[in-house]
From TrEMBL:
Catalyses which reaction(s): ATP + protein L-histidine = ADP + protein N-phospho-L-histidine
GO molecular function, one term: protein histidine kinase activity
EC number: 2.7.13.3
Keywords, ordered alphabetically: ATP-binding, Chromophore, Flavoprotein, FMN, Kinase, Nucleotide-binding, Phosphoprotein, Photoreceptor protein, Receptor, Repeat, Sensory transduction, Transferase, Virulence
Protein's organism: Mesorhizobium sanjuanii
Domain PAC: start-end pairs: 186-238, 311-361
Name of the protein in its database record: Blue-light-activated histidine kinase
Residue stretches in coiled coil: none
Origin: domain of life: Bacteria
Any one Pfam family match given in the protein's UniProt record, by short name: PAS_3
């Protein structure tokens, strides 16, 4: 309506101006003064009003000149004005039509976009809603309704604040405060309340475009249900706490070595076991300062790993206070992101090692005490036999006494050799001769074999075997019979094979052939493995005894033949 009034006003002013101008200037007046008015009317009105206004202006212009005074030039100008008005009207009409078409196309696109947005809004997998600055929910989608248990019209009567758990409403307030500052969106994990009063965890995101820091009328709310993820996180945290508790109770630590980068990471307990201050990671080479040099290759092995394998080593750690600790590293070797790595748990075995050593020492002491007890229990019968074997030469008591003292001292030397050589190397020949020395000269004894060196522990055990054979022979066999004979020899097929030791007795035995299963049988290996060597064999008869034993290369040294290695006593 306003455009029509403006068009009439322009037309009236133009006609009035044309009449007055024509009266004052006469025939020299032209129709050009109508062109601006035609353009304005064409802009404001459609094609028909513009053509009508043009014809009206043309008629008034001709009338103002007088019908009897119109010249050919006036008619020419009038026709030109009519054509110009038509062109202007058609041109503006076409422009207006094109503008309408473009506007309609854009409007259709906007409507299509809005339709797609509404479709996505309604069917989105997450909850969507619009709220104003007061927190009132203006519009909600189906997913949000399903999450909360409300209908859309029920949500429209609620405020966003009422959907948030009371303990998390401060977080919502911070989100709204953040939107009013310098951020277009804020998010936080909060608990939302359903219609039935139950709560669930959700990721709540508020977003908007903030003009000049002023809170807008509409805020876009995104609600993502993270209850399952939150439950999984809680379960994971609980499992981690349980694992940490179990590792702490077991005094275990976790560690990981990236062999490609040469980086070691570990828990605080791991660094404490190594005697180092806690750190997120350390270069692998830095551990060389605390790892025993002999054990370093176990930790810094080849960095090219094969298939996934178990990793189980024990290393010694030199702590800053000087103490040596035993540490067990157990885990796996595999690849992660094309990086060869080792990872697992670590345990301090020092106390266990010490306990094992103490138990071994106690067991060794117990064995030594048992042997000492057994040896002393055999000592008195041996001394008695020595006294009985030595005759009084020509009723010479002094010579008899000296001979008896010599035999007892030889027996004492055997016991001292057995005790003193326990932790040193000894010659097999010396061990045999020293044990049989008290009986040399009164019994037929032969000892032969190559020179064989035995380590301390093996020598002590072998001396116990020879002592047991000698004691047994004195009590029941050849040494107790004036007609008896003992042959002791040892030999080896070649430098790399076992040494075969043999003890042969001939003469009448004073007991049955039944083997008694006592401490002596345990020493000889009748009931199982002997104290040293392997494959023992014991054969007894009424007229003799044969005992054989094999000594491995781990228990003896190299064989050598030397003059005097054979011994004969008669």
């Amino acid at each position: 309506m306003l455009t029509h009034l403006v068009s009439l006003l322009v037309l009236s002013v133009t006609l009035t101006f044309a009449i007055k101008t024509s009266a004052s200037i006469g025939e020299s007046a032209s129709f050009l003064e109508f062109i601006p008015a035609i353009i304005i009317i064409a802009y404001l009105e459609d094609r028909a009003p513009t053509l009508a206004a043009t014809i009206l202006m043309l008629a008034v212009g001709l009338w103002a000149r007088g019908l009897d005074q119109i010249s050919n030039d006036d008619w020419a100008r009038a026709i030109l004005l009519l054509v110009s008005g038509g062109v202007i009207a058609i041109t503006f009409h076409r422009l207006r039509k094109d503008l309408h078409e473009v506007a309609d196309a854009r409007l259709a696109a906007v409507e299509a976009t809005g339709s797609r947005y509404r479709w996505a809004f309604e069917r989105a997998a997450m909850g969507f809603a619009n709220t104003n600055e007061k927190g009132e929910l203006l519009q909600s989608n189906r997913r949000l309704c399903d999450m909360t248990g409300y209908k859309e019209e029920e949500l429209a009567r609620l405020q966003l604040n009422t959907l948030v758990h009371p303990d998390d409403r401060d977080a919502l307030a911070r989100l709204l405060a953040g939107l009013g500052k310098d951020a277009a969106s804020f998010g936080s994990e909060v608990r939302l309340l359903r219609k039935d009063g139950t709560a669930f965890w959700a990721r709540l995101t508020l977003s908007s475009s903030v003009p000049d820091g002023v809170l807008p009328e509409s805020i876009f709310v995104v609600v993502d249900d993270i209850s399952e993820r939150q439950a999984a996180d809680e379960a994971l945290r609980a499992q981690k706490e349980w694992l940490d508790l179990a590792l702490s109770a077991g005094r275990l630590a976790t560690w990981r070595i990236d062999l490609k980068e040469g980086i070691v990471t570990g828990s605080a307990t791991f660094w404490d076991i190594l005697g180092l201050p806690p750190a997120a990671s350390r270069p692998l080479e830095e551990l060389a300062a605390v790892i025993h040099p002999a054990d370093w290759p176990k930790l810094a092995a080849s960095r090219k790993l094969g298939p996934v394998t178990n990793y189980d080593v024990e290393i010694r750690v030199r702590r800053p206070d000087g103490h040596i600790r035993w540490v067990a590293l157990r885990g796996r070797e595999d690849k992660h992101d094309n990086h060869p790595q080792r990872l697992g748990v670590a345990a301090d075995l020092t106390e266990r090692r010490q306990t094992t050593l103490l138990r071994a020492a106690a067991k060794k002491r117990e064995r030594i005490m048992l042997e000492q007890r057994h040896r002393f229990s055999n000592l008195f019968p041996v001394i008695t036999a020595l006294v009985n074997m030595v005759n009084v030469p020509d009723n010479n008591i002094a010579k008899y006494k000296q001979t008896l003292i010599d035999r007892i001292r030889a027996l004492e030397a055997t016991h001292l050799l057995l005790s003193a050589k326990g932790n040193q190397s000894a010659m097999l020949h010396d061990l045999v001769v020293q044990e049989l020395q008290p009986y040399m000269g009164t019994r037929d004894i032969g000892v032969s074999g190559p020179s064989v060196s035995m380590s301390g522990g093996a020598a002590e055990s072998f001396a116990m075997i020879v002592h047991e054979l000698t004691t047994n022979s004195m009590k029941h066999g050849a040494l107790g019979d004036s007609e008896g004979r003992i042959e002791v020899n040892w030999a080896s097929e070649d430098a790399g094979s076992d040494v075969v030791f043999e003890w042969l007795e001939s003469g009448r035995r004073r007991t049955s052939n039944v083997v008694r299963h006592g401490f002596g049988s345990m020493i000889l290996g009748v009931d199982g493995a002997p104290l040293v060597g392997h494959s023992p064999k014991l054969e007894m008869s009424d007229h003799g005894l044969r005992y054989s034993l094999k000594l491995s290369r781990k228990e003896i040294g190299p064989l050598t033949h030397r003059p005097g290695s054979d011994f004969q006593g008669a």
